[in-house]
Amino acid sequence: MLGFFKKLFGGTPVNYKELLSNGAIIVDVRSAGEYKSGHIPGSRNLPLDGIRGKIQDLKKTNKPVITVCRSGARSSMAKNILKSAGIEVYNGGAWNSLMNKIA
User: Fold this and answer.
1) Contacts of 80 (CB under 8 A, 6+ apart)
2) Model-level pTM?
3) Is the Cβ–Cβ distance between 36 and 47 less than 8 Å?
4) pLDDT tens digits, residue range 15-40?
5) Is residue 8 part of a domain?
6) Which domain holds residue 74?
């Protein structure tokens, strides 16, 4: 039964610390106001409604991207947009939750 859920929800857990140590970029897709109220140090604020306009900039970095937001919903949408553009991308979910995982 556990195998079924792993397949359904993505399988192998992501090692975010390793991704970051290998140069991954954290992209926070919340609004500028939300970002100012708290964020992961070193993350970039690219609100979801403008993420398509930043695809080329992200591609130029040639680094994996970890998307985050408040709950994981917007970061999931951003992940799908970036993935369809050919970027290696991971949904980090809620920014404060990811911050605890990488601390």
Assistant:
1) none
2) 0.89
3) no
4) 999 999 999 999 999 999 999 999 99
5) no
6) 16-102
